[in-house]
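Re: [ENG-882] Designed sequences occasionally contain unexpected residues at chain ends

Forwarding the minimal case from QA. Structure tokens:
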């Protein structure tokens, strides 16, 4: 029998959770709740000093609670904060960043958080849905934050573009009209160039066969916005073990950030919020304070977008990235923009040796994965007399931890700027300018 308790939510925690306490004193983490909520909660998972729960009933709502705009919010894992105003979301993210800094004894305070763009909805340029058979036929669905095995059937998502919503619906309608009853259709994905109006469509199956391929391509052809379409196969439903086949158009689409144009392939990592990316890159440029003739090292450079964006004043930009496809895209992006001072190298940043590169008197840009940096990499970077180090992170916890490690090596944060690139979610981007202490 599931355990049900009345709980008062005391504060927000990381990753979109609200924090309260069980009757036995243990901390319980629950999503979709706000500080001040009094709820009836079901305990769904327990550890020695921690439990996780889900909302069964709101007994007394927080004064900050508002009605979510999306009817799927209570089940769908795509959003965390539609039940509070956007102004409160910004306050929350500011507090979570500052709490992480205090916890890691980082003395400097963060600047006031700024929105990445004016859009609070319809800002995502990439999204993935699952197919789901229902009594009404084939539907698209998003992940259920409580039960990954029971996706939430949706007719739309307020974070993606209106065209994407419309086209996903048309794909489901097509298969229903053709009497499709199979189980080999798994997922659909769209990537969008928000500044170019170009779309890439990807349909993912668990067999080598694509049902009604001809009819699907005819549907795609009705939409001139779709410049690229892939059939992707993953026998084991593993998004990291894929084979792709181009079934329509060209293998890439284009997006613009500022005056620069970037190609996006199915494998590319690209900022999910294109308008927000320009705000982010402008702030990186401000923190880097590039002077004519400076050299820039761009670690974890991905498809080269940051390095290319910063290249106009620099004497040279060297990007280092472990993913070969990303390095290929980075080199192509430099050519597309007629940039001749950028060089991109395929190498694992975590395995670099002092003898491999010299970073003295250079500007270093670091934009690592969510897990952040290793102590060894921070120690390695501390051996150089770099001009400035700009650290970009999407994880307040690992960001603050790494600033603490840097400070132990005499590298001090001079400025910290949070940017909200992902309204309605718990995610936040952070930039810091670091310098060697005198």
């Amino acid at each position: 029998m599931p355990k049900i308790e009345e709980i008062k939510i005391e504060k927000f925690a990381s990753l979109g959770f609200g924090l309260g306490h069980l009757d036995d004193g243990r901390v319980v983490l629950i999503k979709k709740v706000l500080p001040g909520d009094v709820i009836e909660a079901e305990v769904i998972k327990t550890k020695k000093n921690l439990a996780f729960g889900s909302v069964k009933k709101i007994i007394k709502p927080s004064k900050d609670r508002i009605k979510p705009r999306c009817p799927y919010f209570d089940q769908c894992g795509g959003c965390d904060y539609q039940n509070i105003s956007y102004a409160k979301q910004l306050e929350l993210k500011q507090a979570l960043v500052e709490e992480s800094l205090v916890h890691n004894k980082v003395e400097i305070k963060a600047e006031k958080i700024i929105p990445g763009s004016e859009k609070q909805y319809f800002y995502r340029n990439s999204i993935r849905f699952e197919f789901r058979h229902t009594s009404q036929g084939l539907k698209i669905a998003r992940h259920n934050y409580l039960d990954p095995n029971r996706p939430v059937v949706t007719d739309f998502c307020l974070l993606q573009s209106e065209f994407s919503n419309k086209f996903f619906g048309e794909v489901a309608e097509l298969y229903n009209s053709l009497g499709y009853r199979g189980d080999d259709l798994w997922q659909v994905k769209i990537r969008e160039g928000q500044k170019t109006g170009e779309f890439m469509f990807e349909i993912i199956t668990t067999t080598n066969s694509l049902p009604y391929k001809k009819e699907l391509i005819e549907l795609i052809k009705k939409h001139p916005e779709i410049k690229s379409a892939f059939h992707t196969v993953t026998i084991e439903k593993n998004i990291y073990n894929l084979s792709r086949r181009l079934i329509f158009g060209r293998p890439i689409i284009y997006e613009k950030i500022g005056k620069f144009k970037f190609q996006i392939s199915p494998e590319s990592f690209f900022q999910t919020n294109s308008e927000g990316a320009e705000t982010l890159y402008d702030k990186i440029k401000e923190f880097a304070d590039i002077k004519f003739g400076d050299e820039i090292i761009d670690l974890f450079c991905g498809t080269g977008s940051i390095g290319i964006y910063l290249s106009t004043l620099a004497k040279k930009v060297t990007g280092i990235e472990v993913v070969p496809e990303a390095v290929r895209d980075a080199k192509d992006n430099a050519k597309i923009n007629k940039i001749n001072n950028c060089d991109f190298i395929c190498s694992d940043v975590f395995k670099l040796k002092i003898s491999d590169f010299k970073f003295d008197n250079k500007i270093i840009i670091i934009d690592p994965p969510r897990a952040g940096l290793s102590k060894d990499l921070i120690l390695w970077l501390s051996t150089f007399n770099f001009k400035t180090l700009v650290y970009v992170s999407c994880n307040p916890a690992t960001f603050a931890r790494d600033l603490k490690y840097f400070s132990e090596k005499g590298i001090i944060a001079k400025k910290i700027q949070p940017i909200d690139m992902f309204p309605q979610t718990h995610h936040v981007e952070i930039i810091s300018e670091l310098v060697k202490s005198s």
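QA comment: On inspection the terminal residues look reasonable. The mean pLDDT is 94. Proposing we downgrade this to a documentation issue.
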